[in-house]
Amino acid sequence: MKIETLSETNCFGGRIGFYRHASATNDCDMRFAVFVPPQAASGKVPVVTFLSGLTCTEENFMVKSGAQRVAAELGIMLVSPDTSPRGEGVPDDPDGDYDFGLGAGFYLNATQAPWSQHYHMYDYVLGELQQAVFENFPGDASRHGLTGHSMGGHGALTIGLRNPDRFRSLSAFAPICTTLHSPWGQKALGYYLGNDTSAWAEYDAAEVARRCEQPAHYRKVLVDQGGADAFLEEQLQPDRLADACRESGVSLELRVHPGYDHGYYFISTFIEEHLNFHAAELRA
Description:
By secondary structure, this protein is of the alpha/beta class. It has 10 helices and 9 strands. Strands 1-2-3-5-4-6-7-8-9 form a 9-stranded mixed beta sheet, sandwiched between helices.
């Protein structure tokens, strides 16, 4: 796949860049960011893809998380895509709110007009994004981990648990664990998928975990949650995920950290532990 380089610079002995390509899946140009660690000079390296949350772009994780230092030490390539389609003709929230439309693709495939022309982030993450990365960068597709934050945590869990053949490690920061019972999820899935909530279950992390047919594929799924997160009880509801994993046998380590909120201070505090977790799983 042909990609356009928007910018590149050295970082912790490696290289960080921002890129753009034409997406047939989302019928628009899409952007993504990649950090290539110094170890890639000697051969292919494992990859961890980070899916960002509401209002974010491909830049937020790369700018705010501080992950590159640790990734350089571990020899891990980092990938961060944009969170939605964008551009002329891509529809946005009709009320101009932040929790739907641009910056809020929810990592699903929309079926309802006008969203269905562009909003196919589920297929994009599994298809064109991986094609763009593995055809243009020295990443090892057989050692690929997935993580994300908030809406992106929901995306990581639903995509990762539904596609265990594509990823070898899985984690999340403060994920939306149930779109069926979260106001954010109810609004987004109502627009994208319509009013028949039976179609929503494929994009509800707890329901996907409950129905998981290969619970032993991931030796463990790691989820970190801030105890002082303002969205914890209404929007995120990690207890639903924990209950579902117990029912299906998915091995979940859910850690709740007192005093931490929903933002990047929380992510930057625990990103090193997550990358070490992925490194260990991708070496196994």
